[in-house]
Amino acid sequence: MRKYTIFLIVIISLLYSSDNSNKEIVRDLFHVEGTILSEVPADFASFQFTISGTGKDLRSAVDKAKGKVKEISSSLFNIGLDKSNLSTSRFFSGENIGGKAFLTDDRDYVASIRVVVNTDNLDLLEPAILVVSDQDLDELTDITFKLKNIEKVKYETFEKAILKAKEKAIAFQQILDIGKIRVVKVEEMNNYRNRNLVNPFNSSNAVHFTQKNSVGMDESGNIPMFYAETISVSVKVQVTYEILQE
Fold first, then answer.
1. Can you give the pTM of this predicted structure?
2. Phi and psi (nearest 5°) for 170?
3. Which segments of the chain have a pLDDT < 70?
4. What is the dihedral angle through the alpha carbons of 92, 93, 94, 96, rounded to the nearest 10 degrees?
5. Which domains does the chain have, with CATH numbers?
6. Residue 243, φ and ψ in degrees, nearest 5
7. Counting CB atoms within 10 angstroms of each CB, which of 65, 137, 165, 206 has the fewest?
8. In angstroms, what CA-CA distances link 64 with 51, 91, 160, 202, 218?
9. Kindly report the CA angle at 169 between 165 and 171, in degrees rounded to 5?
10. What number of other Cβ atoms are within 10 A of residue 135's Cβ?
11. From the CB of residue 48, how many other CB atoms can be counted at a distance below 10 Å?
């Protein structure tokens, strides 16, 4: 008899638990948004130049191209850059089709080298470009500006957006006298994505970047030929709060 009683109690407990699990849990939720725009002056610049050498064979063409690069590099070192500021992004060598001379074989082969110049001293950007422009180049292109530590700016902007949303939530809590609240969800609302953003809350990473020129004079009162850009990072988040029952 005792066994049947225990069995009956277990069955009733299971039915009661099943009945409770089917009941929908209703929570009081509200959403707040935080938007922050961070504008930071660019602190890093780069440009590229391409230079070629010709010769009667590949070796002589490569040697001429290397010699020109060495000459330009020495001029750049003289204004304050060093080897860490230079890198080769492309190299090509082969028969100089369409560029051979009629009466000599000195242009039968060609070698082309593309060099990237990077600097975090923006005062050296214009002198570097002028130094390179004095040489016999194929082209000088892709002058760009950026931040060396963009990840830090993105994370700080994200953090500020979260705090902005938190300020709004606390204001609602105090004005409406709604008691205790807690965070249940954090979402980024931007339409632009950048996978490198560090986000400790979810896997949806979104940051909107814009760039604008900053025109100004140098210490001597001269207007520079190239203007550093201001990098803008915009982050918008939505935070969902639950109103806790007393």
1. 0.63
2. -65, -40
3. 1-26, 102-103, 190-226, 246
4. 90
5. 26-41+149-243 (3.30.110.170), 44-146 (3.30.70.2970)
6. -85, 115
7. 137
8. 10, 13, 54, 54, 38
9. 115
10. 14
11. 18
